[in-house]
Amino acid sequence: MADLAKYQQELSKYNTKYFGEALKEPLNFWGLAGFAIAAAYTQSVIPLLVALIAEIIYLMIVPMLPNYRRMVDRRLRERLIAQHKSAREKLIKSFTAREREAVEYLRWQKEKIQDNYKKFTGASEVPTNLHSLEQRWEDFVDLLDVYRRRKQHLKSINRQSVHNQLSQAFRATESATDERTKKVQQTNVEILKRRLAAFDELESSVKHVEGQLQSIENFFGYLNDEIVTMSQPDKFTLLDFEQLSDSIAMTKQMLDATSDAMGALDAHNRAMGNYELLPEAKS
Do 115 and 85 reside in the same domain of the chain? Predict the structure, then answer.
């Protein structure tokens, strides 16, 4: 019974999308406007009644037409793609000049690879694996954003200062004269240990992401060299593309696994008033 209710809810939501799009169609809007003008001109409610009947028929038929639904789906998909590209360009603009230069060079190289493939092979279309370079370029932008934010987090912490605090907390624990004071200092020791562990974890992840960024850059350069010198269109296979894709996927899993450490540093920066280093400061 619960599954049936869930299905009906999803179906209602699905149909509402087409219903709402049909309402917003310019043809529908100007049609209603025409009836309204006719009613004002004739000083009669008959055009309005006709408009009401026509609108009911329109909303009963048009949103259910397969061709209309395909058009709506395509239009919404194009809208989402445009929003995605706009958000990515906005992100790139927030990068430093040097970071933007790296991103733009890789974008240029991506287009150059595809142009060179057509030029040197005489093909009118590029193969599927070369189309995937767009996703690899987007991966580069995403990883670069993660890399720069984590580096900023690490710069916000004085590691030596945390070590000094830990040493002081150890000594305070050993010299505590009552159980309550000792327990407080032991808690402080554990917190400081976790901060250092989070720092180490993030430091390792930064080096990992830096290596992945270099790997993507080198892959683009390697591909361009291969295409310029290859004699047959099918010389290279999907193997290298799959290896890079798997490597990026593993890097993203590693970043997910270190999200707790990021949360710990976010909490520290918030407590210290370093609001410019928090993720919401960049939104």
Answer: no
